[in-house]
């Protein structure tokens, strides 16, 4: 018998993949969340870890003395040398078994990225602070934000690991309408991620619910909604795609003439367009009504800038002395001792991760102040171009660490409260050799338009010429894009008549 047959073979294939340990995942989560959200993360660990205790806001007398004795700056309760940590000879445990420091080799690259930088600004806690903080959290109503809604969809999408990181950055970059206001190239430069990953994430984002999310313009948003409704080739879609400017001015007869359609049909199409959502992200606007609490405050202190980290919503933790004493007495079974030691290691890891988080944010803030000194001195118009890669190289961490550290966080400055990501922006180099950020260029455009003659407003090309006079070379289409992002109408719609 001859011919093709079937065979079964065993083949060995070698591949590399990175698997994050649960503790490392927890540390990255602690680094990424804002101060307001950090408490809920810590409370989860407190509920599942009996060896962790939350310190009272302020102790007195014997209680305060006990707190000072038990507490260690980085959760070093496991390094106690007091009587309760001594192991009886018949317990079967040695001092080496009680030392948890070597367990933290699991941090690996994470330890290399998070390098110590000295103490950060702190403040004294009082019982009144504790009650006010608890009242604040009890008053919060938990709602799904736009970011949470989109990331849940991202978890179900088949994205590459790089695109997942890019998606987090994209979701955090959306404006209140749900629009992307930067190009993929600018976002890649700002985040330090590859352009391919950003493009993959952008394409996926535009397929998410609600339709129109991740659009670059109102026209693109409306077209996406029409396509989602199966109306991608309809008359309303043609009007938006081919005659959006006439649509914005409601030039019905002119649109009808150009499309060889009846005015009544054009009117009906415009009414259909009017039922679309021009800002799909705003249906989640309830999330933006919550109070924004600065994670960092920067204040002038003589000739220097002082950095104060907000620790009001971060519980102070320690390893319970009770469970250390139980292990030291030697009355527990091996299984019980192993369980408590594992819980203590986990607790100490959490305490260290919280402190490492604060130090990392403090270091990044300090480097932002150095890089953006003109902004802190003079205001928004002096913002300098800056990328996460630049800060990462100075601090000695990977740019993804910087991205996580600044995510969802705000900084209070003498010029207002800004998101950390506000300070990271590409820019232009003026003829003088100095650098000017995109944000500063937008400010210049807004200033030029604010003082223009209403009867003869500046065209985008004229603005290009004015900026060129300041030594900044910029394309007309870029001016138009920045003007739209500022919510400023084109010159023909800004003209006023006496």
Number of strands: 8
Rg (CA only): 29 Å
Spans with pLDDT under 50 lasting ≥5 residues? Answer: 59-125, 133-142
Shape: globular
Give the termini separation: 100 Å
Query: Pairing-aware structural class of the strands and helices?
Result: alpha+beta
Task: Determine the strand fraction and express it as a percent band.
Answer: 5-15%
Work out the helix count: 24
Range of helix content: 40-55%
Strand order of the largest sheet: 3-2-5-6
Largest sheet: 4 strands, mixed
Write structural notes for this entry.
The protein is 50% helix and 6% strand. Residues 59-125 and 133-142 have low confidence and may be disordered. With 498 residues, it is α+β, with helices and mostly antiparallel strands. It has a four-stranded mixed β-sheet with strand order 3-2-5-6, covered by helices on one side. It has helices at residues 22-32, 35-48, 61-70, 95-98, 109-113, 127-139, 146-156, 161-173, 184-191, 195-205, 218-228, 235-242, 244-248, 252-259, 263-274, 321-329, 334-371, 373-378, 388-395, 399-406, 438-450, 460-469, 476-485, 491-494; strands at residues 52-54, 296-301, 304-309, 317-319, 410-413, 416-419, 427-429, 435-437. Among the domains are: 22-70 and 102-141 and 318-344, no CATH class; 146-283, no CATH class; 427-494, Arc Repressor Mutant, subunit A (Orthogonal Bundle).
């Amino acid at each position: 018998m001859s011919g093709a047959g079937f065979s079964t073979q065993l083949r060995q294939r070698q591949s590399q993949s990175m698997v994050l340990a649960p503790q490392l995942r927890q540390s990255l989560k602690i680094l990424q969340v804002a101060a307001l959200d950090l408490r809920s993360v810590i409370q989860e660990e407190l509920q599942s870890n009996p060896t962790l205790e939350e310190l009272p806001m302020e102790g007195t007398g014997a209680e305060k003395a006990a707190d000072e004795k038990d507490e260690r700056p980085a959760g070093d309760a496991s390094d106690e040398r007091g009587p309760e940590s001594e192991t009886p000879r018949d317990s079967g445990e040695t001092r080496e078994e009680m030392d948890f420091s070597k367990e933290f080799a699991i941090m690996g690259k994470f330890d290399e990225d998070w390098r110590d930088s000295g103490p950060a600004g702190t403040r004294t806690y009082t019982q009144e602070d504790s009650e006010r903080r608890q009242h604040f959290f009890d008053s919060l109503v938990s709602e799904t934000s736009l970011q949470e809604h989109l990331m849940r969809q991202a978890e179900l999408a088949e994205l590459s690991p790089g695109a997942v990181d890019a998606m987090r950055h994209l979701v955090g970059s959306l404006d209140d309408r749900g629009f992307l206001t930067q190009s993929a190239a600018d976002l890649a430069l700002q985040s330090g991620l590859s352009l391919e990953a950003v493009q993959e994430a952008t394409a996926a984002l535009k397929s998410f619910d609600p339709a129109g999310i991740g659009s670059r313009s109102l026209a693109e948003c409306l077209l996406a909604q029409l396509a989602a409704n199966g109306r991608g080739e309809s008359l309303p879609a043609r009007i938006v795609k081919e005659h959006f400017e006439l649509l914005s001015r409601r030039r019905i007869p002119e649109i009808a003439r150009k499309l060889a359609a009846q005015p009544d049909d054009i009117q009906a199409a415009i009414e259909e367009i009017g039922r679309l959502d021009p800002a799909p992200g705003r249906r989640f606007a309830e999330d933006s009504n919550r109070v924004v609490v600065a994670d960092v405050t920067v204040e002038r202190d003589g000739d220097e800038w002082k950095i104060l980290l907000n620790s009001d919503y971060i519980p102070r933790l320690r390893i319970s002395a009770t469970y250390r004493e139980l292990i030291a007495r030697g009355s527990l079974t091996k299984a019980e001792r192993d369980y408590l030691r594992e819980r203590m290691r986990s607790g100490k890891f959490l305490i260290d991760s919280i402190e490492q988080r604060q130090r990392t944010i403090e270091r990044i803030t300090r480097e932002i102040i150095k890089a953006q000194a003109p902004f802190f001195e003079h205001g928004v118009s002096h913002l300098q171009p800056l990328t996460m890669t630049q800060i990462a190289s100075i601090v000695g961490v990977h740019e993804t660490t910087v991205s996580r550290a600044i995510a969802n966080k705000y900084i209070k400055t003498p010029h207002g409260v800004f998101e950390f990501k506000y300070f990271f922006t590409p820019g232009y180099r003026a003829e003088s050799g100095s650098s000017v950020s995109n944000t500063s260029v937008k400010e210049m455009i807004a200033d030029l338009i604010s003082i223009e003659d209403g009867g003869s407003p500046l065209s985008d090309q004229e603005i290009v010429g004015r900026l060129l006079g300041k030594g900044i070379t910029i394309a007309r289409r870029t001016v138009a894009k920045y003007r739209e992002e500022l919510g400023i109408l084109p010159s023909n719609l800004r003209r006023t008549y006496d």
